[in-house]
Amino acid sequence: MKLLGLFLLLLVFQAAAMEFVILPFIARKVLEVAPGKSSLFLGNETLWSGLIALAVALALAVWVAGRISARLDRVIAFTRRIAAGELSARLDYDEEDPLSSIEAALNQAAQRLAENIAEIESRRLELAGLLDSLQEAVVAITPEGLVRWSNAAMGRIAGTQIRVGFPLVHSVQDPELLSSVKAALEEREERSGRARTLAPGRIFEIHAVPISSGGALAVLHDITRIDAAEKSRREFVANVSHELRTPLTSIQGYVETLIEEPNVRKETSREFLGIILKNATRMNRITEDLLALATVESPDYKLSPKPARADALIQDAMDSLGGLVADSDVALELSGAPEALVMADPDAMNQVFGNLVENAIRYGQAGKRILIGARLLEFEVEFSVRDFGPGIASEHLSRIFERFYRVDKARSRESGGTGLGLAIVKHIVLAHGGRIWAESELGSGATFYFTLPLSTQVSEARQTPDAGA
Length: 469
Fold this sequence. Notes:
This protein is an alpha+beta fold. The protein is 57% helix and 15% strand.
């Protein structure tokens, strides 16, 4: 701006100098034409006219330079405001000259810059929202090992705020996560691992990958349920193998004895065949229970619930279990049941009562009787099956509905139990929308409870104010 002003002043002085050179030349020509004129007078006149012209040119140059300087100052202030982030700033102009074209172009550039930044910010917020909505935890690390960004899931998992601009170790201390991120940063290779100490009782699969900017990105996926399912599957296979191996070993041993001993006595043969039959029957029961459990645990398992009276369900179950009870020398008694309608699949309920009564006979036979009953609650009916046997210790009550879980393994195998009956009952009751639990005291027997929801018509009637009238 100052250089422009100096340039204008230089033009003015050059014009004035040219005037002082040209005017004397004109004066000499005039004297040659009119020698009578006084040279002194002409010289004074030329001097004064030059001085006046110089003063006018100088004032004009100063005025023009001042206007240009003021407009350039506004342009500089405008660019500083844009650089400071004030993208709404604009230049005001009302003249048509080269500087106006520059000012218009700057305004247009500022407008486009504001639109581009607004679009980038909108996309950034959209991306941040998408990442925050993910169940997976995501954290980005700079090449220096500092946290660049993390989503909301990462903070929830870590149980603390992830501090941006600080090393990741300041927020989390899981060694597997830290080592995976370090390897991705230093070796520029994808690393995987499992974090078991990041959150209590939860397991996360880690994928740490290098990114083009030189940093790394770590994604954590919660595999707690998958790991538990895999562990349950391994335990299930091991339990099934163990349960089938025991009777198979027994059958194999007795069959080999009968084959190798051609002169076995008839009584011994009958005894061996009886043992073989007993073990084969047990294997058949295990197979049937496994199939039943697979059916009720399948996503395709469908019930056919319909309104049924609670007392009728219990009576049907008692009638169908008459033969089993008669062979066990245990009395099956009804302790009372309401006539309320519940939503139930009759065939599935027969299976539930059958497994619970069979379990009560097997472990509570010493009590000589079993009570079956039900009582009406506000929105459901509570059924119960009680035995008067030795009872169940409290530490076992929370696990007796697990597959193959036994309170007394030796006694269960001796009595022919498979360890799957209560697991089947649990799945059927839950599929009906009910609840199931057990209560017991050592020496006082055990009681198994489960609930079924009331029929829709009955539930609506009970909630209607005029139902009582």
